[in-house]
Design goal:
Length: about 675
């Protein structure tokens, strides 16, 4: 690759941009530590994207124009900027995870270390996303998705600009075209797959390119609009001030900075994780950041608020602070076994600030600046390659099970795939149904959420071993889908909206459907006397009406001549999660994990959701269906144990049976697959 000159020129330092970095990182940290306080704090990442796009594009545009752009120098600086702190955090997570994580958890961490080292975390997390995936709070390197997108931008954008510049293309035109394309993909993508739109670079690059457009204007057109800016400034001055004021452009700059700050504050308050994001909502933080940067360092907000010493200091440590804060909060969540207390979260944030400062002072600055840059780059790249390989090796070796051999059964249960069989999808009226492989003409149709879907492995076993004794099986199911018609859903569960209607139409149209099995984790959706948290599920106002709709649905199926079964809820609760049987505590270091008993008493179950179960029984009786109660099989008269007689965990987590247990032991559904 052509090299023009030894060193790249860089834009003049602006302390207010470091102050803007501080706002962005502190918003993200506050959101992660106290999501109820700063609901939209995660948009700080979008502010980072704009800043990165602005600074990087300023360097590229300016040096291409001067003929001084060098790929080797550009990437050398990126490596010395990013690798030191990232390496330290990856190694620290590897070391702490050795003592604190079970095999399945360490296996996942290994994959995330490899993804972080290869700057593809966004793709790794995108592929993991699903109903049965581990919760975000237990992924110490979850936050590296944004770093992956930035690095992918740093790889693609300089090459595209260099290619365009060599062929005398207009760089502004290229920037606008790519920005419009990626923004359009973002708008279209959030409607089709919000998770993909969140993690994909093609739906995120427009945010960085917003900074690129600003960089181009700042470099080449800062005087082109002087007359227009002057007129706007005069007009604003007349509105803001009495009498005549000097036409200095200061009023326009102040208005831009205040408007930008207002947009950011509005975004932190109004945007939340339940909205469709990024989509058009991402325009709020992006425009806010663009306006603040456009205002310039002399605008009031930039000069007084963003350029003060405290803000600049946080801005200077923003990168290592971003890297450190989430692993500390995540490991605290894992060790505590639940959301850590307020004091623990505060301590984690204080520690992350201290570690960020030390990282910046002792690691980042010495490696980023000074002599011997080639040696530093070689060492950093070598270390990152080794760390990435170590992470990959941990993943391939199943989380190094020998570390926690005494917890092998728990690790195996918690890490099992939900559906190890051979489900094949088929489409019906826009819904994805899952058809079991069988040539039998009689069909059993399972309808509901993941608690209904979990029985697939048992049906697979029966069809495989007793091919002449059971029906073909179809699963019209989806994670979080309450098996009651016209149930309300939030944005994340819109896929459930027409499920019950589609299943009914299918059952009506196919005479081979003999048995209908309706199941769900009913107590998670139905509440009598207290509304559910969240945006979906049935609260007290619609409780009785929902049960009536279910009864009517069953009666309609019965009129079609179908056998209808209602599978009541399995025992649910964190006490049944195999990982609940692991007690973790820092005071036991280095042996952080100790065993404890699990299980849930019948009395506690009855107190929690006995009335829901009883009301469902009444629905079954009044509508002519039959009830199947898994608790009659999974529990004795006193307790619902979390392990079987051989000490093997029964559950995968606090709300689902273990697939291996279902396959071999869930005999209570066998009768549902006969012609009855």
């Amino acid at each position: 690759m052509t090299t023009y000159q030894a060193h790249l020129s860089h834009p003049k330092y602006r302390p207010d941009i470091d102050g803007l970095r501080a706002v962005a990182v502190l918003a993200v940290v506050a959101f992660h530590a106290f999501p109820g306080w700063v609901r939209g704090g995660f948009i700080g990442v979008d502010v980072f994207f704009v800043i990165s796009g602005y600074l990087i594009s300023t360097i590229i545009f300016d040096n291409l124009e001067k003929g001084t752009f060098s790929f080797s120098d550009f990437y050398s600086r990126r490596i010395r900027r990013i690798f030191p702190a990232l390496l330290l955090v990856l190694i620290a997570c590897f070391a702490f995870g050795w003592f604190a994580l079970l095999a399945d958890e360490y296996k996942q961490l290994g994959k995330h270390i490899a993804g972080g080292a290869g700057f593809v975390s966004n793709f790794v997390l995108w592929n993991e996303a699903g109903y049965f995936d581990n919760s975000a709070e237990t992924k110490p390197l979850l936050h590296l998705w944004s770093l992956g997108i930035e690095e992918q931008f740093y790889i693609a954008w300089p090459f595209l600009l260099w290619f365009a510049w060599k062929r005398n293309f207009n760089l502004l035109t290229i920037t606008i075209i790519v920005s419009v394309i990626t923004f359009s993909l973002n708008i279209k993508g959030v409607k089709q797959d919000m998770i993909a739109a969140f993690y994909s670079p093609k739906t995120r690059f427009w945010e960085l390119l917003s900074g690129s457009l600003l960089a181009w204007v700042a470099l080449y057109k800062k005087n082109a609009f002087a007359n227009v800016k002057s007129k706007i400034d005069v007009w604003l001055s007349r509105i803001v001030y009495s009498g005549k004021s000097e036409n200095s452009g200061k009023t326009l700059s102040d208005v831009c900075s205040f408007l930008g700050l207002f947009l950011l504050l509005y975004g932190f308050w109004r945007i939340n994780k339940e909205l469709i994001f990024p989509g058009t909502w991402a325009l709020v933080p992006v425009l806010g950041a663009v306006l603040i940067i456009t205002a310039g360092s002399k605008a009031w907000v930039n000069r007084i608020v963003l350029s003060n010493k405290i803000a600049v200091w946080f801005g200077l440590i923003s990168f290592p602070l971003y890297l450190w804060h989430w692993p500390l909060l995540s490991f605290a969540r894992i060790v505590e076994g639940e959301a850590p207390s307020r004091d623990i979260r505060i301590a984690a944030i204080v520690l992350s600030v201290v570690l960020a400062w030390l990282t910046c002072k002792l690691i980042e600055r010495p490696l980023r600046f000074g002599n011997h840059s080639k040696i530093k780059v070689t060492v950093l790249v070598t270390l990152m390659t080794i760390v990435g390989y170590v992470g990959y090796n941990i993943h391939k070796r199943n989380g190094l099970e020998f570390r926690v051999s005494r917890f092998a059964k728990i690790s195996k249960a918690a890490g099992e795939w939900q559906y190890p069989g051979k489900l094949t999808p088929f489409n019906f009226e826009g819904r994805t149904f899952l058809r079991q492989n069988s040539k039998k003409m009689e069909v059993t149709l399972f309808i509901g959420d993941s608690n209904s879907e979990q029985y697939y492995v048992r049906t697979d076993e029966l069809i495989s071993t007793l091919p002449n004794a059971v029906n073909s099986v179809i699963f019209a199911t989806g994670g979080g889908c309450l098996a009651i018609p016209a149930s309300p859903y939030d944005e994340a569960h819109k896929h459930c909206t027409n499920l019950m209607e589609s299943a009914f139409n299918y059952a009506k149209s196919d005479v081979n459907v003999k048995n209908i099995v309706i199941g769900a984790q009913w107590p998670q959706y139905l509440k009598d006397g207290a509304a559910l948290t969240g945006k979906f599920g049935v609260g007290e106002k619609d409780y009785l009406a929902s049960l009536k709709r279910l009864a009517a649905y069953i009666r309609e199926l019965k009129r079609l001549g179908k056998n209808v079964y209602i599978v009541l809820s399995i025992p649910i609760g964190s006490e049944l999660d195999p990982k609940f049987m692991i007690f973790r505590g820092l005071k036991h270091f280095p042996h952080l994990m100790l065993m404890r008993d699990g299980g849930l008493s019948r009395q506690v179950i009855n107190e929690r959701y006995g009335k829901v179960q009883e009301d469902l029984r009444k629905v079954v009786e009044s509508s002519g269906a039959k009830a199947v109660n898994p608790m009659d099989f999974l529990c004795n008269s006193v307790v619902c144990p979390s392990v079987d007689g051989n000490g093997e965990p029964i559950y995968k987590d606090g709300g689902h049976l273990r697939p291996a247990y279902v396959r071999d032991r869930a005999r209570f559904i066998d009768s549902l697959l006969t012609s009855g």
